[in-house]
## 1
Amino acid sequence: MPSRTVPRLILATVLCGASLAASAHDLHEREPNAGQPIGPSTGYAFALPDPGSYRLPAIRPAAGGSVLDERGRGHDLADLLQGRITVLAFMYTRCGDLCPTATLQLSLLQDLVAKDQRLAQRMHLVSMSFDPDHDTPEVLAEYAATWRSSEPGAPEWLFLTAPDRSALAPVLAAYGQAVSAKPDPGAAGGPLYHIFRAFLIDASGQIRNIYSLDFLDPELVLTDTKTLILNQEQDQHAASPAP
Amino acid sequence: MTRISVLLSQLAIQPWRNRRRRVLLSTAAVLCAGLTGQPVQADETCQSPYMAKITGEEEFVYVWTLGLEGVGDGQDKVVTVDVRKDSPTFGKAIDTDSVGGRGEAHHGGLTDDRRFFWVAGLSDSRIHIFDVATNPANPKLVKTIDDFVEKSGGVVGAHGAYALPGRMLIPGLSNKNHDGRTGLVEYTNDGQYITTHWMPTAENTQGAAVEKVADGYGYDARVLPRKNVMLTSSFTGFSNYMRPLGEVMKDEEAMKHFGQTMVLWDFHARTPKKVFNVPGAPLEIRWAWGPYNNYAFTSTALTSKLWLVYEDTDGEWKAEAVADVGDPAKLPVPVDISLSADDRTLFIDSFMDGMTRVFDVSDPHRPKQIYERKVGGQVNMVSQSWDGKRLYYTSSLLSNWDKTGADGAQFLKAYSWDGKELAPRFEIDFLREGLGRPHMMSFGSSKLYAS
């Protein structure tokens, strides 16, 4: 186990707009209880496992569906997921808490992967909006420009939306992404309830991990991505006939 | 605020031309999330941290109830109790959904989005999935997993159901040989099998450091995401938990087959790292909630001890007994525990004496009992609201371990807690109402699914 630790950005997996004050990992500082040991790694840090030292079993096939890219061009999401490892995150641009934080983490992941040209060609990032009424291709293009790296070696980062709610519904259902409107559209955190989820999808379209915001750490996702590649190489080597 | 500083420190390493915009966006996000108004949260403090939280008071308590022959339809069922203060049916069972038979109903849990309530049986290893989102006052059975043993590779006694992102973690209690060696099983939220993680044993420690013995037994599984650790506990196998308690207690050989371990796992990699020596069947695990509080409590049923598993100042995880629960010589048999959201108050139920005891655990190494109350002739589960003001107790442990006669009442009792004492709010006699033996509880609210 390497000694380096990952600074953790912990937010509870609560519904956007619900108070986070009493969430699993409170955003407010609380003094430690009296008499309680304060270890060297209090806060948000843990050692990363070595890439390839663990396995990520296939969870389920990643679903497709009708989507639009920033230029308004139509695609089947399944086609966009084939051939490369994908980190897919559901979000919406009016979200005021979980989504921008997650998008920041993705941007840091993009920065990390940019340092590894071989890896950058084998994976990409996808942010998929579940708010098609507001998140038009034009809105997403502007949002993407804010977050996306302009470095030539950075992995691709697609920002997608749906043509309409009817096209979106089966995609959300397939990924188990429940979204509902808050009674007060002006509520803090944005007008929609949702639980943040991101998916690690292998090059053959199988979901291999699902992240809450707790585990959407750039270095950890990078480690998982490398693990997928190493596991695939190990499996191919094991399956090769003896010379 | 630590998280803002963490964000800023991460942002500081970025050379991007749009960095400033990122800082503004992300800081705004965290400020919004952390500093906006704080409606009262009411939620089981013992639930998975990955779960959505209820805003406001809980509206319903879903009770996974073991069928009893001659009582109602005799089947295991989910009973929905109305706990809305102003409702004309406050404190009443307003809906029951039977599952078609008796399979030793025991534990369950909600998915991370709280849309589905999974409940499991210890004897038939079936898992029933209820939709609690479409109409939270009227859950509906939508799927039954009846090939758990086959799919899992031989895990028997589906026990809990613990929410992970998009998945459910099902700890087992046993195996096809009906002893205590078992594993953890993962499913997708819609009930598709993913994988099995077997508990470390003496023959295969899976690389874990072992303090004394690795028995391979299982019971509860709980995750502390920010430390990437999972703790599991250990109970006993099918051949013991399905046998009358009196017989088991008199059988010297059977008494040797109770769990004596807790396992600390690298959660992300799902690999066991350390097997603690915690004799006496450590059962329920409750992680502290505070961001500095790297510890969990458990109680041991057979030795009546409260244990603390904690990260020490040297970064090592350790386990130590920190208190007695009642008089261990009298075998009170501690069962469920519930830690308050501020990590200061721990409720501990003990089955044999029907007591709930309240400990001040502000200093987790030195718990002090501050209150006790006899809840009934027997008591097992306790669930508390997030604000710590409301507690719910149920009576049943196992069909062959529950008491008979005057001490055999089967109930759900609700109390308020003012920090000093419990005051009754309502109770439901599950035998008189033709329901059965109430066991595990989860909270529901229609406000979770506002649209």
Note: The CA atoms of residues 24 and 256 of chain B lie 61 Å apart.
## 2
Amino acid sequence: MGEELKVIVFSLGQEEYGVEVDKVRTIERMVPMTRVPKTPDFVKGVINLRGVVTPVIDLRGRFGIEEAAYTESTRIVIVAYGELEVGMIVDAANDVLDVNTDNIEDPPEVVGGIKAKYLRGVAKVGEDRLLILLNLEEVLNKSEIIQLEQLEE
Amino acid sequence: MEVNQYLSMFIDESKDHLQAMNDNLLALENAPDDISIVQHIFRSAHTLKGMSATMGFEDLAHLTHEMENVLDLLRNHKLTMDEFIFDVLFKGLDSLEAMVYDIIEGGSGKSDVSDLVRNLQSIVSGDYKSQSGPQASAAPVKSEEASSFDLDEFQISILEQSMEQGMLAYSIQVGIREDCVLKAARAYMVFEALEQNGEVIKSSPSVQDIENEKFDRSFSVYYITGLDQEALTGLVGNVSEIESVQATQLTAESLKQLQQSKQQREEEQKSVQAAAGDSSAAESKAGRQAQGAPAAKVANRTIRVDIERLDVLMNLFSELLIDRVRLESLAEEIRRNELTETVEHMARVSSDLQNIVLKLRMVPVESVFNRFPRMIRDISKTLEKKVELEITGADTELDRTVIDEIGDPLVHLLRNSVDHGVELPNERVSNGKPETGTIHLRAFHSGNHVFIEIEDDGKGIDRHKVLKTAIKNNVVTEQQAQSMEDTEVYQLLFASGFSTADKISDISGRGVGLDVVKSKIEQLGGQVSVESKLGVGTKFSIQLPLTLSIISAMLIRVGDEKYAVPLSSIVETMAIAPDKVRRVHGNPMIDYREGVIPLVSLKEVFECPDSAADKPEDLNLVIVRKGDKVISLEVDEFIGQQEIVLKSIGKYLTNLFGISGATILGDGQVSLIIDPNALFK
């Protein structure tokens, strides 16, 4: 038996995603954001997270999926990776699950249009529930932002 | 013992003690006969020794111990100060400092101090004099055991208090058998037995010396316990190889006697000192000390706080402000007098609180300045110059973040003044100046800024020499050079890689020039300028913002968004009619004071969404400056001037165009701070 991994589960469209619980600071409802000029479209701006100015990205936009209107269930998942602290807008955040590392498989080439490098793997939970585990390092990769910025210019 | 918990306290306090020793040693150099200064140094050394021994920094404790031995002889008039002793003590301080800094860096504070220790020991034994020549006079007498067995006031008061509480205090003499093999081990057993039943207040020789077997066949301790005399002698006597135990119970009277004899000794010392020293000098010293005493008391009323905690406090506080704004709007809706009054009161309290929180971060520049006298002493010695450093305004306060950064630039400028400014003594005399040069280091407040000035009465800056070097280094052309004003010429000193030193000396001219100073200060949001008169002297003047974390800014609205523009770069605000805008090569320009300056639309630059209908009829302009260039920024509305707290925008969004940071407004919204410099083409 492998180790148990506790993950926060959230959804984007029809898919369910997971990110390790120790990378998640808090989960917030949508709050007013301050737009930051000249940043890629998926950077929605910055918010005041209890006195700390925190950037927020739209995870749909980050993955190149069509963005959706924000609803009552839209959440900002604040994750911390290394020195970065970033909020990710997701359609809903709804669960905390234990995943056995034995049940994690390599990600398939394409999941809902998301490049495989953003994903750490796919975990089977229960009977027919598939959980896509995020590779935060790639999701928050800064060099990619810089490339995108240069593309825009 | 859980050491880490105390490490930061240890570091802070040892830094303080080192600084105090440094200061006092410098003072002693000016008044070598003033034994009271030696007492201060001794006390610092003693505390430092104790602290480092407790923390397990052996080398540190060892070296301080040896220094303490020398100081002990000095304060007991068994030794008089001379240059050799000063040098060894200063070197010792340097080593101590290096060790403490090693500890700060996460090291173990280990260092080879054997040379220093040997020197210190040779001072104690008096050998150094015979080595250094014929001036060997009366060899200093070894310090007597008895004199080092003084109880200090603190220890006496502990004894008194415990006796009042019904505990018994003893003075115990323990003798160890002559044939004892492990004296230290036996002594250790005695101490352990004692400590299980009470508290050892003081031992002679010190515990450390006893552990190192640095004692003869007996030692004595002052001890507090509940045991009676018989039980006590039995307890100690049970340790094997102990020859004799003599426990004398102390009474209030015997304590008094102890105290008196101590005072007597001190008085004797004082009279000796008064007789020996120049009486007028002693008087002025006494006056200074009288002033010093209350200051020390004030210092004790402060506590140390980790800067991170202050940041947390600050963040919590801004949350509070957000709730305040929310409450204010609720009170407005509900319209109940009691609520409105409460909220108003809360608003007042919180703005007072804000002021205090901001002030907590302010630190006197003293903490930076106090290392300079020593530095100047060393540099001027190396360069064989005579320099006096006069410091004024050391109590001027600056934000902690600025304080941490300002040290290096100041060191550089001061070195520069000693090296390039002040002339050699004979040169000065032949120019009709006093032999000793003076460098003034001043700090003072002015408006929202702190100024730090470094002024020397040296030879000043030679315009021609600067220009010659500048032309040689292709910084300016010969033609440009001819038409340059003096101030412009002096600014050349700050050009990168520029040095006017004829030869590279040990002190400056290592290739690190004033350009580093300039960039550092500009990085802090300050400015540096230079004034000079050939043959009379040079003055460097640094202007710094009071704090890096709070700035004055003008809040503006562009479209639906609010931005903050630092007041420091705003020249003025104005409104003009739209038909005053001219086009030059398709670029909008406006007339401004005899010139034409570009008009930059922030809405276009920042691609602001625009839904606000209330368009102003006139164009609202903010005129901003970068160096001597000026542009105008078009905005929709001036909201007003405000003190804002600078916030980092985080590591995720970097290299933002035209944005230097963010702040949180009273309503909890984040507002971006515009970096006007980026808007200049």
Note: The longest strand of chain A covers residues 4-12.
## 3
Amino acid sequence: MKKVVVALLVLIISLLTFGVIKIGVVLPMTGGISAFGELVWEGVQLAHEEMPKVLGEDVTLVLVDNRSEKIEAANAVSRAIDKEGVVAIIGQVASSHSLAGGQIAETKGVPMLSPSSTNPLVTQGKKFVSRVCFIDPFQGGALAVFASDLLGVKKVAVFVDIEQDYSVGLTNFFIDRFKKSGGQVKKIYYKTGDQEFSAQITQALAFGADAILVTGYYPEIALVAQQAKMLGFTGYFLAGDGADAPELVQIGGEAVEGLFFTTHFHPDANVTERSKRFVNEFVRKYKKKPSALAALGYDAYMILMEAISRVGKADPKLIAEAVRSIKNFEGATGIITIDENGNALKSVIVDVVKNGEFAFQTVIQPDQILGK
Amino acid sequence: MQLNAILVTQNVFNGIMVGGLYALIAVGYTMVYGILRLINFAHGDIMMMGIYFAFYGVILMRMPTILGIVFAILATALLGFVVDRVAYKPLRNAPRISALITAIGMSFFLESFAVVVFGANYKSFLQVLGKNKAFVFKTFKLGGVIIPQITFVVIGITIVALLILFYIVYRTKIGMAMRAISADIPTTSLMGINVDLVIGFTFALGSAFAAIAGIMWAMRYPNFYPYTGFMPGLKAFIAAVFGGIGSLQGAVLGGFLLGIIEVMLITFFPSLMQYRDAFAFLILIIILLIKPSGLLGKKSIEKV
């Protein structure tokens, strides 16, 4: 009798799982940056709703929480692959998590596609880890192009957060590109958690900067802008995607009005036909405007589906290769080409803070950044 | 970069601005030490709680800004009283090191409590100020040098706070009791003074000053989160030791000097600007080596 039950159960389970392609989604759903995880998950779910089948088989999403921790980020990838048997993984948000998890995915030979890790090291020397977002050299270049060509800025004081690899990297890539356009730069240092910048700002003013670029995250960006305005700075404020959080405006108030920052996506940018559709569908499902992270999550899922359908079967190794052969893919965040190193080449969006909201300013194309 | 008179003067005023905030926090810090000989490492976190009280008073209970601030000061005073009752009173007769460890524990507790109850994300104090926020951003221009209005407010409040403190400590009965306790606790209790009540009052008063300092701090730096009190608390401790811990005038002097020295070091050695916090600790080490009792501190004879 027991054997019959077991056999029946096995049969039911195999019937249920027959024709199912499992995709792991490893995100921070609890802990410090859980807000980011939730945003990506919204986009992934929307994409899944739009395309629930590939190769005629159902796609099942397996959400695994990395608890915003580096070690758990690696464990979560192991669990998704060994226990759940996923053929590919979407994840993770923070570069440090993607670095930890990517190592496991690489060893086990399962493709991992990060929606939002911009640090160049994430994909370096790896065959199975790729991403759908631009990398920091690209973002730094876009900032330089925007500052020199569109704003006509000649002297920039760059505030560098010495505690963040993201900030140091972004600064260096910005300076490389900005100097090529004939600009002058002065580096000003601070560290995460600093609140008093007046001495540093006085230095920037003495340098005669006509723009201040803060390459860190929103809490410090907001304070630098505030204190610089109080000390009589009238030039431009610039920042990278570390500014892309509503808290920037809450903390910065009127001081961040007119601040420009580079980012991945804006609902009004309409960079592709698909962006429009994505925004409409997103508003219908969630009753709010989509964030950049949601759009990136959506694109990660769609590119994975495209890769699987090109391969014709759910084979992890072939999927990983197919991901890297994607050219001119129309995503919500732009026309995406993934190069042989797994990095996305795509346009960079520039937003501006207007009346306390993030308004779309312009798009910088890859050839503008790479050209000259 | 060339140094010019305006740059240096501007940075002196920047230093006064920062120093005024340090001084205001250090006053509450040094007061508790003066009475109890307890380094209250939780002082910065009590200050942080004061900011949250003001925030939730205005946002959740919809109080007007001024009322919200008064509420925050009273609530923080009560918190200080409770902290003393719960954490320090049971250790009154224990070795001093036990009280110190408890103070560090209290600091961690308040931080973790704030993370759980208020959330780990940054919040903005501008919401508390509402329509009054323009007040924070007003500046004066004096021949090329720009001084934020809030600098004067901070200095003014520090002076008023000190006057009130001196009045309480030197002109009232409870002040006399406080001074008596600072000299000798067992004898004071024999005189029929309720020692615990007076110490509780001292904590409440010190915490009220922490709340005032916190609100000033948040006006200058509107982003706050549960660990906001950590650095200011540490700086105020250094300022208090610098000026002579236990001395109210010393705390004020130490605070202003620390602020100015920090900023001037960056001015003259711009390449060292990322080590600004390290300078503060360097000052602490130097003062402990050269004049351990601080600038205005009295040399006390340890009772053996």
Note: DSSP finds 13 helices and 16 strands in chain A.
## 4
Amino acid sequence: MAVLKKVEQVMMALNGDEAVAWAVKQSNVDVVSAYPITPQTIIVERISEFVNNGEMDAEFIHVESEHSALTAAWGAALAGARAFTATAANGLALMWEILYITASTRVPVVMAVVNRALSAPINIHNDHSDTMGARDSGWIQIYSEDAQEAYDNTIMAFKIAEESLFPVMVTLDGFTISHTLQNVSVLPDDVVSDFVGVRRIPRIKLPRIHGDKEIPLMFNPKYPITFGPLDLYDYYFEHKVQQNEAMKETFPIIERVHKEYGEISGRSYEPVFMVPYRTEDADAIILGLSSTMSVVKKVVDDLRERGKKVGAIRLRVFRPFPADFLRRELSKFHAVGVLDRCISFGGEGGPLFNEVRSALYGLPSRPIVHNYIYGLGGRDLPRSLIVKIYEELLSARAEPEVPVVKYVGVRE
Amino acid sequence: MSSQLVGWRDLPLGAVAFISSKEYPTGEWAVFQPKIDEKKCIKCGLCWMYCPDSAYRWDGEGVPVPDLDHCKGCGICEVECPTKAIEMIRV
Ligand code: SF4
Ligand code: SF4
């Protein structure tokens, strides 16, 4: 991370949830709809305090479920508002239907998801089964490593969403980030407000057969339009291809917004999609998401001191999946261990592993890729186990025909 | 439905409807269609009011006319008609 402090920032002691709430408060948000769920609750509690105290000029909608929370945010955003909501685990699962609808109608809602395990049994601690399950719903997904990044990602998310016309999920690990106090550099209100600006409404062109009309993409009695009504075998496929192709075009938008944010904050997170750590001359790499990678980096430091050529790569953006970047970055290593904090039941390894291995398959020379499923329901991943993973990767011989998928830290 | 189908590059964003419901002959699904006995009809308009597909055309005075391009044959009008003027006929 390049540090070129451009504006004076204040250091505040915030936990990850509070950091998100601060970012929302500063981002000219018009509507927040919310249903509290652990470990997300603090986000909407803080926002409701801000609104109550007059510190934030937004409409706060109390709803009776997460399904309604996202529906309200979606409706508000369709009417031209900048809308935010937050959720976790089962709450995200309850939003399922509207996740797809929000994405397919290209509505730029921003949502913080505090990653938490899915039931049953009920567990309030961190893993990624919630957002990994939502990976196909058409939302951009950005994973945060700490509270600072949760703050920065939330601000950037509004710009990314509105410029790409895709909803964005900013994720932060339950409790590890959401409830842990950290020093967070907070930008001045006006700087954030200028950065995100006021929401602009895009215009859409109707096809020639309908008279070449250009109308705003929003609910507006002057130009009545209907969103997502009925589309059978004649057009549904075209709509989905259009959506998928558009998602691939969000890479440059995501990069540009990070660059612009880097210029005002000094925190640019470059490279944007995956952050390498001591990968130069490394033989074995661990690739993973979010807060776990802080610990992995410490282990890399320890092992480097002992002369082991190891490194780490943290993936920041999982959707759109940066396959091209991965191909370029990973082909030079001997072995890559992919950390999945999620199980894909009946699948061949975790979701991250599946896509990484698939991205590398066509390369003439590709690394050995192993999958390590860890930390479900908040289970700790101690340094000693990370060391073991590195040892295994360093001594791995050839890419096996049958993928190696292991559970790390589970009792046999 | 329009015969000029456009490709994905030419679709408006956001799954916005650009083909109006008039152009979707959803009545093609129907297995039954209503037939009104004009002699029994008292022109109360209940069939027009209850039809979930707004398939009836009615000027407020004469006998309502079901638009069979959009009637899906649910039979609600038959049940609601107070004079039993509507009979559902298998297509
Ligand atoms: S059968 Fe159903 S859809 Fe058809 S006209 Fe009667 S009420 Fe309407
Ligand atoms: S409900 Fe029956 S009586 Fe009334 S207008 Fe319709 S057909 Fe005629």
Note: Chain A has a mean pLDDT of 95.
